[in-house]
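Appendix C reproduces, verbatim, an entry submitted by the partner laboratory led by Prof. M.T., so that reviewers can inspect both the input and the predicted structure.
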Amino acid sequence: ECTAAFERAMHSVGASVRARETLLADGVRVMREALERDDADPRVWIYLGELELQRGRSDVAVDAFRRAIELDPQDALAHSGFAYGLVEQHREVEAEEALHGALTSCPSALLRGQLGSLLIDQGRIEEAADQIERGLELEPENEELLLLHARHLSESEEQMRDSLERALASDPDFVDALVDLGVLFATQSRRDSARKCFRRAIDVDSDCVEAFHELAALELDTAPREALRLAGRSLEIDPEESRGWSLMGEALWQLGRKAEAHRALERACSIRPVRADGARAFWIRARLSEEEGLVQHAIWRLEEAAAYAHLWQPVAADLGRLYADVGRLTEAERWLQIALEHDVDDRGSRRLLRRLRVR
């Protein structure tokens, strides 16, 4: 009964918000009733912790996982859930300590990978690499560890592809690996291979926003109507994703529907907090204004995005270039320097800055 209730709740991701909340609450009720009959089953405590995490109740989840650990100190899932709950409460130091402690008595590829991810988030790449490598020694074909290796430790595209393909050999339906492999193929101009990866990811998970985004970006130049459809579908799944609105704006522009394009991009720029995709939307709006010959409008768009220039380097580069075009040379130099701080290989900004300094 507990397993069935847990699986119903955890498989309710595609349901409406109300239906999902109901299934999660029902699952919690079943676990509580089971624990009233027998509170010494660590599996039920783990189920309860997982469900409470899904409900956003990390404090209750942490208590449930702690109880599961007391009952079975060798259960890696209990340790993993406990650490994840601490991270949800922004208690990363305690989570790291808990994972290190668990690994002294419970060798686990799962826990090595989780600790590696936590260290990556803190920028401690060398320590993360050690944890991932040690996890792969325990489980050489662990798909989650192979994905981490591909994303953060690969030293070449060939090595990245090898790790992703090994992950997919272990689990052909591993959506994250399919999307990452598709992105890799797209950067190599292997469009058909990229398209197959993204479509496979969507076949496995019809709500995979990232796959819709990447496929829309792939189709943008050659099939803008299809790109528009795909962007629209991504926004049906998550209307608060700035990249979906940005892709829709670009597709509409390609189709000559300029007023609609600007509205879509305005929507992308309005989403908070601003992340890289949102900063890129500001930059696209500026580029479109420049295409229309509205240089001052383009500058205004980029000035709006100035606070987010660290998220999308071309904001600083284009702001420097346009300031130079209108004779605001001191500001141009400052923004070109900022652009180069974010991308030392930006040759265009470097050449323009050199010309301005010898004027």
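The two ends are 78 Å apart (CA to CA). Additional entries are available on request from the coordinating office.
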